[in-house]
């Protein structure tokens, strides 16, 4: 599904913008409250913002490590 959407929209939108928008729609980003805020044109620099909320806070009040991992891990695969 994502492959077809990517090939269709890549004719009209730059790859960097398309990566940012499509990654922000993924459930792992929506559930951990993470957002991709910036993607460079060559896709070498990606900035991610994860605010500390009740969804990703652990027992001691710091950020749950799984939220960090789920926001950063798919970037390296691209």
Keywords:
two-stranded antiparallel ribbon; HotDog_dom_sf; DUF4442 domain-containing protein
Explain this structure to me?
This protein has 78 residues and is mainly alpha-helical. Helices cover 49% and strands 12% of the residues. It has four helices and two strands. It has a two-stranded antiparallel ribbon with strand order 1-2. A hairpin with a 6-residue loop joins strand 1 and strand 2. The chain is elongated. It starts with a helix and ends with a helix. The model has no long low-confidence stretch (mean pLDDT 83).
Secondary structure layout plus pairing:
Blueprint: H1 2-9, H2 15-25, H3 27-32, E1 35-39, E2 46-49, H4 65-77
Antiparallel strand pairs: 1-2
InterPro entries: HotDog_dom_sf
Protein name: DUF4442 domain-containing protein
């Amino acid at each position: 599904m994502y492959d077809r959407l990517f090939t269709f929209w890549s004719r009209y939108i730059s790859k960097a913008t398309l990566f940012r928008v499509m990654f922000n729609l993924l459930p792992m980003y929506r559930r951990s409250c993470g957002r991709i805020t910036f993607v460079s044109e060559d896709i070498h620099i990606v900035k991610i913002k994860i605010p500390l909320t009740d969804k990703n806070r652990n027992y001691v009040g710091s950020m749950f490590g799984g939220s960090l991992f789920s926001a950063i891990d798919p970037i390296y695969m691209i």
